[in-house]
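Why does residue order matter? Because the sequence determines the fold. Keep that principle in mind as you read this record.
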Amino acid sequence: MADDHTGRVEEQSDREDAERRGHHRLELEFGRRADFDDPKHEWRRLFSELLGTFFLVLVGAGGAVVNAQSDGAISRAAAVTAPGLMVMAIILFMGAVSGAHLNPAVSIAFAARGDFPWRRVPGYVIVQLIGATLACLFLWAVLGKLGMLGATEPGPGISATQAMLMELILTVGLVSVILGTASGAQNVGVFGALGVGSYIILAGLWSSPISGASMNPARSFGPDMALLDFTNYWAYVVGPLAGALIAVGFAYVLRGPGGGKSGAAAAQGRIGPLRTTDEKE
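Structure:
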């Protein structure tokens, strides 16, 4: 019995040491944790989401714009690979600040899972939409109104309903990967970045001719807002949001309820006040 007690004490001590080392690394990279615990610094997370979504849409929509400007110099494979690689980079360089959602469907999924406070969802969604729109306006200003500014539309012979269903199933997979790599022992930045980025590339390689493989209402909103044409936008809202909620249900079946520290840390970033289901808002 004494040996068991000693082992538990040593294990607890090791966990505390690991946590202190983690906090120290975060302070070296981002500054003092106390600075981010202050609610006044919520703007850092919102700016992180705006900047990350800007770069994601810049690359995602930019492929079509540059392709139109250069008479088809960019292949479809390159156009769908670029956003996946950009997502990998964004998760690695700023995931610890905001969680690197970059997608309203992801923010809502994390909140429905219990890993992210619902009260922070509106702010995240608003800045994601703004970042996406700014990216498309930048492309328009620099290269011109080309390639429909990268708008995601149903492919030839594909109805908006078919595109919506494709977006739904693709988003089920995307959000499942995100929630899975944000849980337990898998909650490692590199795993999350590789898993999510790889999924985006694979989904785009085979399904982009059907729906554009958006999986992201913000990604589709940017070009539509710049062009003031929301004809098929409903498909790129209904599909991803429904897919995200289905993925939350799958996560419950696979891993039980969320709201633990590991999932919350991935969803909220590793700096600032961490909200779990065991704590009051």
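The radius of gyration is 20 Å.
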